[in-house]
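Methods — Computational structure assignment.
A single polypeptide chain was analysed. Its primary sequence is given first, followed by the predicted tertiary structure written as structure tokens.
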Amino acid sequence: MKHAILGIGGVGGLVGTALGSLGEDISVIVRPGSLSGYPKELSLERPSGTITCPARAVAKLTEPVDVLWVATKTFHLQASLELVESTPRMVVPLLNGVDHVALLRARFGHDAVVPATISVEAERLAPGRFIQRSPFVRLAIASSGEATLGAIVERLRGIGFTCLFIPNEQTLLWSKLCFLGPYALVTSASGKNAGEVAADAEWKRKLDTAIAEACAVARADGGEVDVAKLQAFFETMPPSMRSSMQKDVAAKRPLELDSIGGPIVRLGERYGVDVPVTRALIATINAMTAAHSG
């Protein structure tokens, strides 16, 4: 099948290279200024070894593709969609949060958009070069995409991906956000990695409480989530692991704070669910970034 990758950072590069290494046809959408020098081969360093694949770089997607994988930062989504001029058969967003699904369905149609989430620590090292730092890749896709993506997903399992098809889209989206949101907020506000948070009783309490708050909002929004299971998942994480938001804070880059923490607060207000720890963590990060910009 033909695939295009919109947002060729760590996650987009990982997905594109993994698919290409399995023989799929890959195009990557890059900024016009980067087009001429973009490598014709993608490479991904993984804990199990390096994989590579050929790929075409394009400044705009003008040809039809079977699957458009969207892996931009949420605040770049609107501008990035201007580079998509064709109509993909299927759109699979891997963005953080929950708000992007409605935006994409307004553009491409309800049935064409198959929500998905990915959990991995991956980074772009250079144009066309990526690294997977976490020992795991967890890919969850709405069951509406199983007929088209089932065979590919099975091959991804063969190279070490953990993949699931999930019938309830709210459960799919919130299962990630209920962990990612609190984890990103706590690591960013504290400056601590996973191991340091686990060793600090106060920050660990904030993490557990923030997970419980997010799960309460998720359940009100129709998601089926397990607080204890998500809290226990933290214990399985590599101690050195840091969240992407934490790295962005340190590097003084724009943050996905609104898409990661915002839905928990906004939907909490809608459903009458109080989320004081989540609010406090967001306020702390906002104060930190204001101090940096000042």
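Note: The longest helix spans residues 169-190.
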